[in-house]
Amino acid sequence: MELRDKFGRKITYLRLAITDRCNLRCQYCMPTQGIDIVDRKELLSYKEMYRITRVFSELGVNKVRLTGGEPFVRKDFVNFLESLSFNDKLDEINITTNGALISNHINKLEELKINAINLSIDSLQREKFAKITRRDVFVDVYNTLEKLERSNLKLKLNVVVQSGFNTDEIIDFIELSKNKDVAVRFIEEMPFNGKGQRDIKEEWNFEKIISHVKEHYLEVETLKDAESSTSRNFKIPNYKGTFGIIPAFTRTICNDCNRIRITATGMFKNCLFDGGVFNVRDFMRDGASDDELKQLFISTVHKKPKNGFIAEAARGNSVSESMSTIGG
Ligand code: SAM
Ligand code: SF4
User: Fold this and answer.
1) CA distance 82 to 64
2) What separation in Å is there between the alpha carbon of 14 and the centre of ligand 2?
3) Binding pocket residue ranges, ligand 2, CB within 6 Å
């Protein structure tokens, strides 16, 4: 039994949102006052998340990304990581985090089966960072970055490219990869911010970002992307690290998509841009067996839309929910 959609794409990668709560208020992700968080009992319990992951892993999913909201704000998250590490069918467990709360956990993470940490950092300047995230935690996040770089965990940096805010730092971020073994990834901003399209002066899409970089460097090496990679990857010759661009909004990466998502409240999403297909939490709480879950997952994946544009058109309303509820 495996998960395959009608376009032949095999699903091997689950993104699981641990919570909808967050300690930051990034402008592109949520309004100043935050989002309406759900009642605690509406969130999947760790036991439910463990079961969902196990069932998916029995259907060929071998890679999990834990995200949110901020996964580390949920109590006992590290214990949950520990239990997931016992699942031998998982080859990779990755985490996306804003890094403000994790520096004390890094040694523990190194002992577990954690492959990579994606650390979100949108500015290398303390004041600007505080403006973007609406919290003054740059020093903690940068400290996490340095500790992670010295650890045995792979480190990727997520940088949402925001017109009028941090485009002047694109080169500074690439320069970080000169002496540090990091993969910097520039992400196109999407309207998932809890209120809809922001007033963006200039669209910084993949093409604009790469031309900007090429204007600065004499030589930019194109790297061979791993299968189903979300980013197109590059390197400045002789730099220790790499950089990449995630065309999250222009959606040129859908062809070989291998991903599905479960939100913090248990909504199954075949695509980041769909409106959610069904609620796994309710199905489980109504007593579904593992076999019933498997049948449901198989038939749902079969209906995965061809790409993010088709998924968005089919949802019947506009994309405006916060990424923290979806699990970015
Ligand atoms: N709180 C964690 C963090 O910030 O890394 C994990 C959750 S966050 C929703 C996951 C990723 O989505 C982050 O890298 C964040 O920058 C990105 N993100 C959030 N809102 C976005 C948006 N509107 N457009 C593009 N990326 C976004
Ligand atoms: Fe929180 Fe991450 Fe959203 Fe920022 S991007 S508000 S850190 S969930």
Assistant:
1) 14
2) 19
3) 22, 24-26, 29-30, 68-70, 98, 120, 323-324
Residues 231, 178, 92, 83: is their CA dihedral positive or negative?
A: negative
Whole-number pLDDT of residue 319: 81
Per-residue pLDDT band for 258 (boundaries 50, 70, 90) equals very high
- Please give the distance, rounded to the nearest whole angstrom, from the Cα atom of residue 215 to the centre of ligand 1: 28
Closest ligand to residue 96's CA:
1
Average pLDDT over the chain, rounded to an integer: 94
Per-residue pLDDT reduced to its tens digit, 216-245: 999 999 999 888 899 999 999 999 999 999
Q: How far is the CA of 30 from the centre of ligand 2 (A)?
A: 8
CA–CA distance, 259 with 96 (Å, rounded to integer): 15
Single out the residue of 195, 163, 135, 198 nearest to residue 322, CA to CA: 195
Task: For residue 10, give the DSSP letter.
Answer: B
In the predicted model, what is the mean pLDDT of residues 122-148?
Answer: 97
State the pLDDT at residue 226: 87
Tokens, residue 317: 């309303």
Residue 191: exposure state from Cβ atoms within 10 A (0-12, 13-18, ≥19): middle
Q: Which amino acid is at 248?
A: A
Separation between Cα atoms, residue 45 and residue 41, nearest integer Å:
8
Residue whose entry in the numeric block shows the structure tokens 């036991």: 47
* pLDDT at res. 316: 75
